[in-house]
Structure formats: C-alpha cells, structure tokens
Design a protein that fits this description.
2 helices; four-stranded antiparallel beta sheet; five-stranded antiparallel beta sheet; mainly beta; 107 residues
Length: 107
C-alpha cells in the first residue's frame, strides 16, 4: 500500500496507474483509495491520512466547493506517495494527531 495526506475539505480528482489515467472500464473497478481514521493538525490545518493500492502512481487532488480564501490553488498533483514507514514518521513528527473513535473526533 501507499499513503498520502489530504487537507480536510479537499477531494481526489483523477488517479494515474502505470498505463496513464485510471480507466474504470479497462480495470473494471475504481482505484482502491481509503481515508484512514488518522489525521494530523499542522498550522491549524487538518490533514487526513489516505491509503491507496500499489497500482496507483499519482493522484490529483482539488479543494472542495467550500474552499477557504487562503486556498488559491485549483488542483495539485501528488507524484510522491509515501510508504507506510514514511507515513508513520510524519504522524510522529506532527504537532497534533487526531483519530475517529466511535463516530467522534478525538485529539
């Protein structure tokens, strides 16, 4: 598995595999992308940890409809997805870690 952090309110747009942009008709399924129950908070920004399958090599993300005024970027390409070890290291180095426990957000 590979991992990346995504700012709360942002969403995944296009996904790339080895053969280019992910084609659901050719693969007969959507790419496996799952938001984990862990996030980090840095500079008042909440970033959720996502895991993706090995076949994914790049992810395009975009701000949600209610993007804040400080989000001037229209979309971002994530070309370097993290290993599990890198994700754990990032979690350990963050200012704050939060997780969902029984449907509520805990810091």
């Amino acid at each position: 598995m590979k991992y990346f952090f995504l700012t709360e309110g942002w969403s995944v747009a296009r996904v790339w595999g080895l053969d280019g942009v992910w084609n659901e008709l050719a693969w007969r399924r959507s790419p496996q992308i799952e938001r984990m129950n862990l996030c980090i908070v840095e500079n008042d920004e909440t970033m959720w940890l996502y895991k993706v399958e090995e076949a994914v090599i790049m992810v395009e993300v975009k701000p949600g409809e209610k993007g804040s005024s400080k989000q001037a970027i229209g979309q971002v390409m994530l070309k370097r997805l993290m290993s599990a070890e890198q994700a754990i290291e990032r979690l350990g180095a963050s200012e704050a870690i939060c997780q969902i426990v029984k449907g509520s957000l805990q810091n």
